[in-house]
Design a protein that fits this description.
Elements lengths: L3 E3 L6 E3 L10 H4 L1 H31 L5 E2 L2 E2 H27 L17 H17 L6 H13 L1 H7 L21 E3 L16 E6 L15 H11 L1 E5 L19 E5 L11 E3 L4 E3 L6 E3 L5 E4 L11 E3 L5 E3 L14 H11 L1
Antiparallel strand pairs: 1-2, 3-4, 5-6, 6-7, 7-8, 9-10, 10-11, 11-12, 13-14
Length: about 350
């Protein structure tokens, strides 16, 4: 650092004022004040740990439909406990740094190029000195309470894994059943074979998504509707009947070249509908798994290992497409227990 600093107009140099005289903090001169501050900071970390445990308890015990002052009681409690824990940890760390860690002013020389070996060694020395001045070794109460709070921080993350949804083996059934109409997933209108031209692909879903009870309320609504819709989504395609090569037992699963398959890729569950009319191939946009719809949804490329589940179709008395049954094969991404679950499903059918 030079002794003189140039003024903005570079006409006169300004003398370097230097550093102000160092002022001691109360914790630097009074051991009782330092101990009191240490206990306060450790109390913050300890309370943060209790709040994170409270987060886990609230998640398990509070009913999701319970309210508090017009708000969701669960959301309010989870936000208050986790937010309070993070706030206390942050405030405690700031107080530790301001009142107990080293408080000596330093000057760092600027340089336009890479530091010399001596400077690098000096930096490492300063880092080690900083670690020493942080007093983390001399203040085990703060250190241990902070480590405990940081360890407890992982508990809410583990608890929240429950919000990722049910385990895969719970996805074996959908709302499709015998006689249920296939409807357009945008308009909700039933589909007739005459509505589909050769080469067409329609995104569809079961008619139950639009059915209402005697009070005019939807049979499915809210979260149940979204879950059912995501698992039961299908694609309906039409090709020339002579291009279809059904496997044994699937000869009557289509109607004059009209076939219906699950819209959920069997790799990791992405929605698919990128259709090549000439080859009858459908492509998953996530990882490029490719399925041959003319050949029972067989995988011909990509990481998927299972064919697309096919939904058997028929026509009702009014000429609309209907499902013959639910999917005979499990819908959704692959997982280790799939083979076992599929065998159980095959035995039931």
């Amino acid at each position: 650092m030079t002794d003189l600093i140039e003024s903005p107009d570079a006409s006169e140099p300004i003398k370097n004022p230097g550093l102000q005289e160092h002022q001691e903090r109360p914790q630097d001169v009074d051991p009782k004040a330092a101990s009191r501050t240490e206990r306060q900071i450790s109390g913050m970390f300890g309370l943060a740990t209790l709040l994170m445990l409270g987060f886990c308890v609230a998640y398990v015990t509070i009913d999701k439909d319970q309210t508090f002052l017009g708000w969701s009681a669960m959301n309010f409690t989870l936000g208050a406990t986790l937010g309070g824990a993070l706030l206390l940890m942050g405030v405690g760390i700031i107080q530790w740094a301001k009142k107990l860690m080293g408080d000596h002013e330093i000057i760092e020389m600027r340089h336009p190029v890479a530091s010399t070996t001596e400077d690098r060694e000096a930096v490492l020395k300063d880092l080690n000195q900083g670690i020493k001045e942080s007093a983390i070794g001399r203040r085990p109460l703060i250190r241990n309470s902070l480590l405990g709070a940081m360890g407890a921080l992982g508990l809410p993350a583990v608890i929240l894994l429950g919000d990722l949804g049910p385990l895969p083996h719970g996805q074996r059934n959908t709302v499709w059943k015998k006689g249920m109409r296939v409807v357009n997933d945008v308009s909700g209108t039933p589909i007739k074979p005459s509505d589909l031209e050769v080469g067409a692909l329609v995104n569809a879903e079961p008619a139950i998504m639009y059915e209402t009870d005697e009070h005019g309320e939807h049979v499915l609504h809210g979260k149940e509707l979204l879950q059912a819709k995501s698992k039961a989504a299908v694609i309906v395609v039409r090709m020339r009947p002579e291009d279809v090569t059904p496997s044994k037992g699937r000869e009557n699963w289509g109607i004059d070249g009209i076939l219906c398959y699950s819209k959920i890729c069997t790799h990791v569950g992405c929605p698919i509908s990128l259709y090549e009319q000439q080859t009858h191939h459908v492509l998953c946009p996530c990882h490029q798994s490719t399925f041959d719809l003319a050949d029972n949804g067989k995988v011909i490329f990509g990481p998927a290992h299972r064919a697309l589940p096919q939904l058997p179709l028929a026509v009702d008395s009014e000429g609309y497409l209907i499902a013959v049954s639910d999917f005979p094969h499990i819908v959704g991404p692959s997982y280790p227990e799939l083979a076992r679950d599929q065998k159980k499903l095959d035995k039931k059918s």
